[in-house]
Amino acid sequence: MISNFHSDNGSNLQQLSDQEVLKKAANGDGEAFGMLYDRYIGRIYNYIFYRTGNQHDAEDLTSRVFYRAMRHIGNYQDRGLPISAWLYRIAHNLVANWHRDNSRRKEIPLDDGYNVLKQTGLLPEAALEKAEEQDELLLVLRRLPAERQQLLFLKFVEHLPNAEIGRIMGRTEGAIKSLYHRTLISLREEYEISFDR
Amino acid sequence: MKWFRLWKKTETDQELQVLEERLQETLVPVAPRAEFVEGLRKNLLVQLAGVELTPAEQNQNLQTGLLITGGILGGIFVVLAGIRGIVSLIGMAGLLISLLKQDTQQPASTSELAH
User: Fold this and answer.
1) Is A26's Cβ below 8 Å from some Cβ in B?
2) A19, A59, B2, B112: which is deepest, by most CB within 10 A?
3) How many Cα atoms sit within 13 Å of A125 on the Cβ side?
4) DSSP state, B92?
5) In terms of pTM, does the model score above 0.80?
6) Does any domain span residue B89?
7) Where on the phi/psi map is residue A115: left (φ > 0), alpha (ψ -120 to 50), or beta?
8) How far apart are CA A23 and CA A2, in angstroms?
9) How many domains is chain B built from?
10) Domain range for B95
């Protein structure tokens, strides 16, 4: 029988750490895998959405990330890294393949309706201008190297501290600080170039 | 002067601060579609656990399992019985041969005794 994700056992799973849930999932516990899925679906989707810039591909690649995780969960080796690092690694590889396959394709702007500013109380003209600025910033951001995009995503979307970002990206806290500073500088330069065009 | 810059923010720092604020406004969490999240979870769990079986399907599987087990056990029994039969035949043949040998040897010995 298929495990019911919202069963009593599910509430017990909620109290377990990621590593404990992962261990259960690796032993074929469907409910445990469902728990991991619920914990990370939003984060992985967001990451891929910002990397691809559209909902359709974000959904497609997010599905692939979890199917791949499901197939390889039995081989997962705990090296003291958070599970998110493993999932982001899978997502990163899939997005890299996606970019390679679509390298000749015209850049797709972020979906309409995504931008929260369009739902704010700003005057239509001001909101539109702001939204355009943000879309431009996102296009520039997506021209940065993958690891810099990931860093900005973890910092601004997930609001993670540098130490946690370091654990996910396999770098020291100091290296993350330094990379962050360089990323901001290169983003600003790219942004200026983009405006000069 | 360098000492002046130690406490006063440079133009670059201010620009970066503005950029950080813009990033903060732009990079906001996006919620995936609920249908997508539910659908994917369902598909993953189905694939992980295998297709759900109805009681009738489960009974059919049990019957198939019993038939296979019975077939294997029956096969083993037939093979053992065959071996046993062959061994019995060989034993019978050996007995007959020894009896025939005894029959051919006995008249000679009786004639020898008569003389």
Assistant:
1) no
2) A59
3) 0
4) H
5) no
6) yes
7) beta
8) 19
9) 1
10) 77-106
Is the pLDDT assigned to residue A16 strictly greater than 90?
Answer: no
What is the ipTM score, two decimals? 0.78
Beta-carbon contacts of A139 under 8 Å, excluding residues fewer than 6 positions away, are: A53, A107, A109, A194
> Which one of B26, B33, B53, B57 would you mutate to disrupt binding with A, by most A Cβ within 10 Å of its Cβ?
B26
In one letter, which amino acid is B19?
A: L
Give the CA diameter of chain B: 150
pLDDT value, residue A110: 54
What angle in degrees, to the nearest 10, is found between the helix axes of A173-196 and B11-26?
A: 90
Contact flag A59-B36 (C-beta cutoff 8 Å): yes
Q: Is residue B88 part of a domain?
A: yes
The top-level CATH class assigned to A10-107 is mainly alpha
For residues A41 and A35, give the distance between their C-alpha atoms in angstroms, rounded to a whole number. 10
How much is the pLDDT for B66? 87
What SS3 class is residue A110? Answer: coil
